[in-house]
Amino acid sequence: MNILEIKKYCATLEHYIGRLDKPFVIDDYVYATDAHNCIRVQKSEFTSNEIEQIIEEQGMKFPLADKIYKELPIRAVIDNGYLSKIVSESLSEFNKKYRHEPEAKCPDCTGGGEVEFSYEDTDSETHYLTGECPVCKGEGIIPAVIEIETGKICDIACAAIIIDKTGVKSDYVKMAADIFGDGEVEVMYSLDTRNPIRMKQGCIDILIAPIAETDREYIVSTKLTLTAQDGEVR
Ligand SMILES: [Zn+2]
């Protein structure tokens, strides 16, 4: 573990500058979080120079960082290779089905929601009338998520997977799988789906907040269920 690796967990949005944009130290651990995804690593994994540098640069500490690491039951011990595989398979499934785009103005009515129709009557006279745009159904915008087969890699920021019953963002699970080494990962959670999923390997301890109830439409895979029925979970 080094400073660059743990910095990947820091907040990057402009809103967070000076707050959560740098790792910080509380007691025996170095933490980094963007308020949705949190990592803590034992100080002993860093050199004393690195610890000095972190303490010197640290800004606001997430006030509850040490309190949110509650004891949770270990629900599964899973091979990190399997974790990576599940996430990448889920995402490729997502990429086939959805293209995520920013909300766009309807090209047919240029956002107005109405279009002009013309028709010719029996005297060959042309009449014009205005009506609801049939493309956007009068909304003036094209919805953000369009269900089409793309076969392409897309914006994965919204994609989520299920761990048992809790939905978590796929890219956070991918970050965890990327930072863990080969070998087993302990997966801990309560059965309340509003609580975080905790993943731990040795001295690396990660907490991933659940997605909001309104984001459950972005769940792309129910493969990672981590139950005893799954032959690959030990
Ligand atoms: Zn339209």
What does this structure look like?
With 234 residues, the chain is of the alpha+beta class. Among the domains are: 89 residues, no CATH class; 40 residues, no CATH class. It has four helices and 16 strands. It has a seven-stranded antiparallel beta sheet with strand order 1-2-3-15-14-13-4. A hairpin with a 2-residue loop joins strand 14 and strand 15. Helix 3 runs antiparallel to helix 4. It is elongated and about 90 Å long. It starts with a helix and ends in a 13-residue tail after the last strand. The C terminus is likely disordered. Zinc ion binds next to loops. The site of zinc ion has 8 residues, from loops.
Q: Tell me, what's the shape?
A: elongated
Low confidence ranges: 228-234
Biggest β-sheet description: 7 strands, antiparallel
Structural class based on helices, strands and sheet pairing: alpha+beta
Number of β-strand runs: 16
Strand content: 25-35%
User: What is the H-and-E element order?
Assistant: HEEEHEHEEEEEEEEHEEEE
Walk across the major sheet and give the strand order.
1-2-3-15-14-13-4
| Distance N to C terminus | 27 Å
Instruction: List all distinct small molecules, including ions and cofactors, that are bound in this structure.
Output: zinc ion
Percent helix among the residues? Answer: 10-25%
Per DSSP, the total helix count is 4
On the 0 to 100 scale, the average pLDDT is 82
Rg over CA atoms, rounded to whole Å, is: 24 Å
Give me the secondary-structure topology.
Layout: H1 3-7, E1 24-26, E2 29-33, E3 37-42, H2 48-57, E4 74-79, H3 80-97, E5 98-100, E6 104-105, E7 114-120, E8 126-132, E9 141-142, E10 145-147, E11 160-163, E12 166-169, H4 170-179, E13 184-188, E14 197-201, E15 204-208, E16 219-221
Parallel strand pairs: 11-16
Antiparallel strand pairs: 1-2, 2-3, 3-15, 4-13, 5-10, 6-9, 7-8, 11-12, 13-14, 14-15
Helix pairs in contact: 3-4
The chain binds zinc ion (ZN).
